[in-house]
Design brief:
- By secondary structure, the protein is an alpha/beta fold.
- Helix 3 links the parallel strand 2 and strand 3.
- It has 12 helices and 11 strands.
- The protein has 2 domains: 230 residues, Spore Coat Polysaccharide Biosynthesis Protein SpsA, Chain A; 61 residues.
- The chain starts with 6 loop residues before the first strand and ends in an 11-residue tail after the last helix.
- Helix 11 packs antiparallel against helix 12.
């Protein structure tokens, strides 16, 4: 990091985001207060609802657009947006969803966190539109955690010590600390890290790409830091109500675990996830039913995002 205010660019990934993109863009000037906002790139996955026209109409910001020409996925759009930047003139890149709003001064604490030795990713405190906490921190995926979440649910498991993967205890969000990974809705990434570990993995299309990126960075000695002094409002929540997205999220987390662990551990993880989703499917949860079908019937898995 250079002395003085950090030089930051922002990459926003959009897909039919006309209802949220203006609010996101209009929050950036105040959110970047205390830093040097060098560039804002809207990387668009072939929106058909006027997203690009709205983005280009926002004045007072250095906004430009990159069009992928198809719905290539979140990671592909991140890579396209980052690829359009001059990283040599930057200290960090904020990757953000269009349904996020930066609270005033949100970027400065994140930029300061990246000055910590070995810190490559800094993430904010995410809140819902009503101001309530949105749990976003995760622990390393393990068979034991998958089994615990299958038996008692992720919400409860996350409150009992380090039993669950999702951190749900509100007290854990009151203090800055390292984390294994975090929701990818808003992540400030050091350009040094970008240069060392390369692009995001586009094979995941949507979900688990931020997990893979953070864990790959940790493999190379980089840490992820949670900074509650930075606050970002995130609307989000689609995977909790959309069966297709929920299934994609579940399948991808199993795929990622399989890539990183041994065969026996991967099988145990798969069975734990299937068992947990099956129990909830029997209780009537549509998202869990879709997840079970996607896990057990590879022919039904989503291979690409619809154009």
């Amino acid at each position: 990091m250079t002395p003085g205010p950090s030089r930051i660019a922002i990459v926003i990934v959009t897909y039919n985001s006309a209802d949220v993109i203006e609010g996101c863009l209009r929050s950036l000037a105040a959110g970047a207060r205390g830093t040097r906002l060098a560039d804002v790139v809207v990387a668009d996955n072939a929106s058909r609802d006027g997203t690009l026209q709205l983005a280009e109409g926002v004045t007072g910001l250095p906004v430009r657009t990159v069009q992928l020409g198809r719905n290539a996925g979140y990671a592909a759009a991140v890579n396209a947006g980052v690829g359009a930047l001059d990283l040599g003139g930057l200290d960090a890149v904020l990757v953000i969803n269009p349904d996020c709003r930066l609270r005033p001064g949100a970027l400065t604490p994140l930029a300061e966190a990246l000055r910590r030795p070995g810190c490559g990713i800094a993430v904010p405190r995410l809140v819902n539109p009503d101001g309530s906490l949105q749990p976003s921190l995760r622990r390393t995926p393990t068979v034991g955690r998958a089994l615990a979440e299958a038996v008692i649910g992720g919400g409860l498991a996350g409150r009992i010590g380090t039993l669950g993967e999702l951190v749900t205890d509100p007290r854990e969000y009151e203090r800055p600390a390292p984390a294994a990974w975090a929701t990818g809705a808003a992540m400030l990434v050091a350009t040094g890290l970008i240069g060392e570990i390369g692009p995001w993995d586009e094979s995941f299309l949507l979900y688990s790409e931020e997990t893979e990126y953070a864990l790959r960075a940790a493999d190379r000695g980089w840490s992820l830091w949670y900074e509650p002094a930075s606050v970002v409002e995130h609307i989000g929540g689609d995977s909790g109500v959309n069966p297709t997205l929920a299934a994609l999220l579940t399948v991808n987390k199993v795929r990622l675990f399989r890539r990183r662990r041994s065969g026996p551990a991967s099988l145990a993880y798969f069975l734990a996830v299937v068992a947990g989703e099956a129990v909830r499917a029997l209780a009537g949860r549509r998202t869990s039913r879709a997840s079970v079908v996607a896990l057990l019937r590879p022919s039904r898995r989503l291979r690409r995002l619809a154009d």
